[in-house]
Amino acid sequence: MDSLSVDHLTGIKNLTEHDIQLIFKTADSFKEVINRSIKKVPSLRDITIANLFFENSTRTRLSFELAEKRLSADVVNFSAASSSVKKGETLIDTVNNILSMKVDMVVMRHPNPGAAKFLSERVDARVINAGDGTHEHPTQALLDSYSIREKLGSVKGKKVVIVGDILHSRVALSNIYCLQKLGAEVMVCGPTTLIPKYIHELGVKVEHDLIKALEWCDVANMLRIQLERQDIKYFPSLREYSMQYGLTKKILDQLSKKIVVMHPGPINRGVEITSDVADSDQAIILDQVENGVAVRMAVIYLLASKIERQ
Known about the structure:
Rossmann fold
């Protein structure tokens, strides 16, 4: 069997193009499974997966949990927001406790960049990064590129603009790595205060005018404004942000071509995109959610195949 070049999924940066294509090919077959009347496969019946969420997340956690259950894995959920971590227990203590319960794989979201990598070097389990601070969110980037491939036939040669809060977004960084590895051209667009200084080093274009960016692209990925990660004000008000960078149906209809609209969710309707854009036939937001389960099933399945059985 074809296998991944990595033992953990800590970030897109460490994946090869072959890894990404293998994940997509595997996701294709799982997508058929989740559209059947019996949606489960017994592939991981003897595997135990712990979901460790040190940060609140509903959508990503549910998507992972569904993917794990579709593969028939045993699932342990741990929400640190309401646990002994608040009493001062460290990440390593928590994880060691969970591993002593004989867990094979850990899916972790953590507020500190690098937490997943730190963990993968210290525990005897496969680790999947479900988002580490403002660093990476690899499965989101995989499902985004997978959704573009499904909609447009391929990612190679496509022009993708990522709009919004690039500075605080782990989705943006993972997306840039993933899209570039698959041969797409990437542009970021947003207020100067929300574009990181180092962004040029990643080989992406920068545009501050939304209309120009939309006229350039085939796909627009509209990011959520991460108010919970902003300790200072990066723009005067949400209203002002949405007037300059919000995507409306009127703007979409005035473009010289039809573009594809994406959003990693949850949507602030009326801020980064209006409801009529979110619900339009150009938006593939619900496809992204469905594809998220198939892509996460693929990642879990491929990493589980590398677990040595005693």
